Amino acid sequence: MKRIWFFLCFGLILAGCALSPQTVMIDPDFVMDQKFAGKKTASLGIEVIDSRQGEVVGNRGGVYKSSSHISTKGDITGPIQQRLSRAYGDIGYQVITGGDKADARLQVEIADLKYTAFGENIVRSIETSAEIRFICQKGSKTFTGSYQGSRKQDVIKAPTDDENERLINGALVTVFQKMLEDRELLAFIDG
């Protein structure tokens, strides 16, 4: 009888360490610093593309690492493009959508988005990272750049679905804030 209880308790403990797959909604909440606001003469077309290898950003860790994937849900470019359009519009640019003619065109590429859980059978820390690249064209001139960022957080227990979504979006906020605060890019658009 003791053996049955032992195996039953052991099985329950293992089941508690198992993490199921998760799909996260991408909607990073970044904003433009109003110190960049002012009269802007250039209209700006914005396009966001996703060039990642696939939708999986990592796994949640735990006992069954191979089946606890985290993936992005649907097209992630739409929410990011809306946020970028709002951010640049908030400081005075006339943001042009679609194929309409604009003075400057900004193409932003989501190159990488990763989630890594550290720890053997129990998750001890999470690292999220992102990389974006951009090409901005104005007339015959081109300005390019890229931004990378990562965030690491120690955890007492494996993050919930909501916490994972916040961590992944946080990595994107980090890199997009770098782009939004790039004075050289803003000067190129204004020039």
The CATH architecture term is 2-Layer Sandwich
Count of alpha/pi helices: 4
- Structural class call reads alpha/beta
Largest sheet: 5 strands, mixed
Question: What fold name stands as the CATH topology?
Answer: Double Stranded RNA Binding Domain
Rounded average pLDDT: 87
CATH class, anyone? Answer: Alpha Beta
Element order, helices and strands? Answer: HEEEEHEEEEHH
Structurally, how many domains make up the residues?
Answer: 1
Give the DSSP E fraction (strand runs of 2 or more residues).
Answer: 25-35%
Please describe what this structure looks like.
This protein has 191 residues and is α/β, with parallel strands linked by helices. It has a single domain (20-190), classed as Lipoprotein like domain (Double Stranded RNA Binding Domain, 2-Layer Sandwich), CATH 3.30.160. The protein is built from 4 helices and 8 strands.
The gist of it:
The protein is an alpha/beta fold and about 190 residues long. It is built from four helices and eight strands; from the N terminus they run αββββαββββαα.
Please describe the topology of this protein.
Blueprint: H1 2-17, E1 22-24, E2 43-50, E3 56-59, E4 69-72, H2 77-90, E5 94-96, E6 104-118, E7 125-138, E8 141-154, H3 161-180, H4 183-190
Parallel strand pairs: 1-4, 2-5, 2-6
Antiparallel strand pairs: 3-4, 6-7, 7-8
